[in-house]
């Protein structure tokens, strides 16, 4: 396996509007990040990924870019951005920017020009189609549904055609069939790399190629009627071109968000020969509670283990992926798979152990290192996220598909806003995030859960993450080892080994809120503990049985206990 710098890196994701507000307008900003770089250094992460900071009308919090070569004035200025990168580099922290290449904002000058007339020079930068005739009616070219609700096509009066938008009508899709448009994107990438950034996280990159038939119609691939159509026919061709034109000329990391990609797709996207991306952000483990987001289904541990095993084994030596539990699109992991209350710290550290010993590059989402939880949003007016607000409109107000109570319950479990409440820095007003009221409510548990309280407390979630990161830096086995799942059928324990050059690690995680016992596999005595999330793990030996079986070492795990042994 090649040794690229990003393989044993640890990425810290910053959701800029919610990280740190330096100027008191209630919105996080670049100078705020600047002041917190030492915190990230102290944690040990060596890469930061910033959510989009380009100019944007913020319909989707920056994932609707109106000028790719600018900094959103809400977040700061270009000199402030440059200063921040410089300081990050001086601390040994690399900076990764989000790049939204699938779509722009309708406010982007390209789109304004494109929609201005049918024979505009930039018409073909976007995906325009004539209405379809259905009897006497004119309807959209196909029946695709947008991710944020409603049809994926919006009719434009002026030119009498529809434009495609896989997300919201504010986010028209770029036409990747157009080589001139592609070259523009590559130029913009070079612009940012020239400012010294160290890579890109490529937003929904698996969607840039749309399935077209010979007549140029957009079609669902046979039998594959999905909301969005990922992994289109030319996606690898485009990424190889992007790689040749841009990535291959720099020593950077490229992280592709690939919704719907399988292991075999990933082997193409993030192959070890480096002709496309460095790694992907896969979704299969996050989508185990159902294809449809608004539900209170729980993720089943057996499914979770099956999926991780498939990815760990399937990518080993072939491709690379991000390891994550949390990001700005997912609810908080302690609230999802752990325990918000009595066992919050235990479950947060157990989940971290489970993830951080796998193969891949770990991503920590701001506040995850403190065990931050979902927020107690009680009312639709508490929400800010376009996806959540639209879903509420569609499923409660327009269709009555769900009662208000049910929908609010699902949202409290799954809304993206759970991740977007302000970072909890200390127990002062607004959690030390801002001097004034933030754009989204602060989770009231900040008086108890905050960075200041955890930074110097032995046994805190923060301290635990610090240790996990340190171990990854020190031990090649965590980055390069192979993976074997044990006890695949156990409903509460997630147990696996990593092996590398005669060494072995055994990772044992208890996903239940009760004690569990585990018989150690041959070669492990239970004595050599690398890390554990409490000191009550007792290894004991089974007694000599009447049949004369030899005593064997067992471990007794406390609720949400986690322990890693080495051999
Ligand atoms: C994925 C991003 O992570 C999400 O926040 C955004 O809404 C969509 N892509 C659309 O850009």
What does it look like?
By secondary structure, the chain is α/β, with parallel strands linked by helices. The protein has four domains: 5-104 and 180-373 and 421-470, Glycosidases (TIM Barrel), CATH 3.20.20; 109-164, Oligo-1,6-glucosidase, Domain 2 (Oligo-1,6-glucosidase, domain 2, Alpha-Beta Complex); 378-414, no CATH class; 481-566, Immunoglobulin-like (Sandwich), CATH 2.60.40.1180. Helices cover 27% and strands 16% of the residues. It has 15 helices and 21 strands. The chain has an eight-stranded parallel beta sheet with strand order 11-10-9-3-2-1-13-12, with helices on one face. Strands 14-15-16-21-18 form a five-stranded antiparallel beta sheet. A hairpin with a 4-residue loop joins β7 and β8. It starts with 10 loop residues before the first strand and ends with a strand. The mean pLDDT is 95. 1-deoxynojirimycin (NOJ) binds next to loops.
- The geometry reads as globular
Euclidean distance between termini CA atoms: 23 Å
Share of β-strand residues? 15-25%
Bound molecules: 1-deoxynojirimycin
SSE arrangement:
Blueprint: E1 11-14, H1 30-43, E2 47-50, H2 78-90, E3 94-99, H3 109-116, E4 128-129, E5 132-134, E6 137-139, E7 153-156, E8 161-164, H4 179-194, E9 199-202, H5 235-245, E10 253-257, H6 263-269, E11 279-281, H7 301-315, E12 322-323, H8 333-337, H9 344-356, E13 361-365, H10 386-398, H11 404-414, H12 417-420, H13 451-455, H14 461-474, H15 476-480, E14 482-486, E15 493-500, E16 503-510, E17 516-519, E18 529-532, E19 538-541, E20 553-557, E21 562-566
Parallel strand pairs: 1-2, 1-13, 2-3, 3-9, 9-10, 10-11, 12-13
Antiparallel strand pairs: 4-8, 5-6, 7-8, 14-15, 15-16, 16-21, 17-20, 18-21, 19-20
């Amino acid at each position: 396996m090649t040794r690229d710098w990003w393989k044993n890196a640890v990425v810290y994701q910053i959701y800029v509007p919610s990280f740190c507000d330096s100027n008191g307008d209630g919105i996080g900003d670049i100078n705020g990040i600047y002041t917190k770089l030492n915190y990230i250094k102290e944690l040990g992460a060596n890469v930061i990924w910033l959510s989009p900071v380009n100019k944007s009308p913020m319909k989707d919090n920056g994932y609707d870019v109106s000028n790719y070569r600018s900094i959103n004035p809400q977040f700061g200025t270009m000199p402030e951005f440059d200063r921040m990168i410089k300081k990050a580099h001086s601390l040994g922290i690399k900076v990764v920017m989000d790049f939204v290449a699938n779509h722009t904002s309708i406010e982007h000058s390209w789109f304004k020009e494109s929609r201005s007339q049918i024979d505009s020079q930039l018409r073909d930068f976007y995906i325009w189609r004539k209405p379809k005739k259905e009897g006497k009616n004119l309807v959209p070219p196909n029946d695709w549904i947008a991710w944020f609700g409603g049809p994926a096509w919006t009719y434009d009066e002026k030119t009498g055609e529809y434009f495609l938008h896989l997300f919201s009508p504010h986010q028209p899709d770029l036409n990747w069939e157009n080589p001139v448009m592609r070259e523009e994107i590559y130029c913009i990438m070079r612009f940012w790399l020239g400012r010294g950034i160290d890579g890109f996280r490529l937003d929904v990159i698996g969607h840039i190629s749309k399935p077209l038939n010979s007549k140029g119609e957009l079609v669902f691939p046979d039998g594959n009627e999905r909301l969005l159509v990922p992994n289109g026919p030319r996606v690898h061709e485009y990424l190889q071109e992007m790689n040749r034109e841009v990535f291959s000329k720099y020593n950077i990391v490229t992280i592709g968000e690939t919704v719907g990609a399988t292991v075999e797709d990933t082997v193409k996207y993030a192959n070890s020969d480096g002709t496309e991306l460095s790694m992907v952000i896969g979704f299969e483990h996050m989508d185990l509670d159902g294809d449809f987001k608004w539900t209170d289904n729980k993720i089943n541990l057996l499914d979770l283990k099956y999926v991780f095993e498939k990815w760990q084994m399937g990518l080993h030596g072939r491709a690379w992926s991000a390891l994550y539990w949390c990001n700005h699109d997912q609810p908080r992991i302690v609230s999802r798979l752990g325990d918000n209350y009595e066992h919050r710290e235990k479950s947060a550290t157990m989940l971290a152990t489970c993830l951080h010993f796998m193969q891949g590059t770990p991503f920590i989402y701001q506040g995850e290192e403190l065990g931050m939880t979902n927020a107690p949003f009680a009312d639709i007016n508490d929400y800010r996220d376009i996806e959540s607000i639209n879903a509420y409109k569609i499923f409660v107000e327009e269709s009555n598909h769900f009662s208000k109570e049910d929908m609010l319950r699902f949202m409290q479990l799954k809304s993206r806003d759970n991740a977007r409440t302000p970072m909890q820095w200390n127990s002062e007003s607004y959690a030390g995030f801002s001097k004034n009221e933030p754009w989204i409510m602060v989770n009231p548990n900040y008086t108890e859960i905050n960075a200041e309280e955890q930074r110097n407390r032995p046994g805190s979630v923060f301290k635990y993450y610090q240790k996990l990161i340190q171990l990854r830096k020190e031990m090649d086995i965590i980055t390069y080892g192979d993976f074997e799942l044990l006890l695949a059928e156990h409903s509460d324990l997630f147990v696996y080994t990593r092996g590398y050059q005669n060494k072995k690690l055994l990772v044992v995680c208890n996903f239940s809120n009760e004690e569990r016992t585990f018989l150690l596999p041959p070669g492990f005595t239970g004595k050599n503990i690398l890390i554990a999330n409490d000191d009550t793990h007792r290894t004991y030996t089974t007694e000599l049985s009447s049949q004369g079986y030899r005593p064997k070492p067992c471990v007794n795990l406390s609720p949400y206990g986690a322990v890693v042994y080495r051999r």
